[in-house]
What does this fold into?
Amino acid sequence: MSGDLKWNKIFGAALGTAFVILVVKTGAEMIYETHEPEKMGYFVNAPEEAEAGAEAPALPADWGTVLPAADIAAGEAAFARCKACHTINQGGADGIGPNLFGVVGGPVTHRAGFAYSDAMIAHKAEAPNWTYDALDEFITSPARDVPGTKMSFAGLRDETTRHNLIAYLRSQGSAGYAIPAPDPARQPGAAPAEGAAPAGADAAVTEGAAAPAEGPAGAPTTQTTPAAPPAATSAPAPK
It folds into this structure.
């Protein structure tokens, strides 16, 4: 009998404790009722990187100047962080990501048989080839450049490291992909030229992209009709 009373006391104490906690919690909520402030006391504007960058977009790299000066050995060292997913030797097997031999200048989905994500396949319709600009944008932030990509790499924000890496990638099976001539419009401090191609397109290679030769710079382009030849019916010659 005494054993039963002992357990009854334990259960009673537990129930009493739970009841007291519940009563105290409910009473505290009634006494100290909180309300959301109608107006925040302080507003801290901390724009995300994309928002801040949108205010002053950086010029695309001048590959004609950057690549000849790039440090290929440093680019190879930077590629070490890619080796967990990619190989780059000729004939190398695909890993989590495709083999990257000859990737620079090649098609976006350059490895036949590799299971590219739907996002990358859709991206190919917008940017068919891995130009220098396209690679630079993708390596900076893969998820931002191709939303939905299977590539989980966060990206390389350091510009010099990216340029060295792209120079190294070019040295691995893409040496035939030409380096464009230096472009003064892409030099630091240069203002974008009126009617210039948008960032993301390499400097060489766009058919019909050059400005018309005739007319002063900045003048509106108008279609002119050639002047009619001199009339054949001039005054009759004296007989």
Notes: Confidence is low (pLDDT under 50) at residues 39-56, 195-239. DSSP finds eight helices and no strands in the chain. Residues 1-32 form one domain. The longest helix spans residues 2-31.
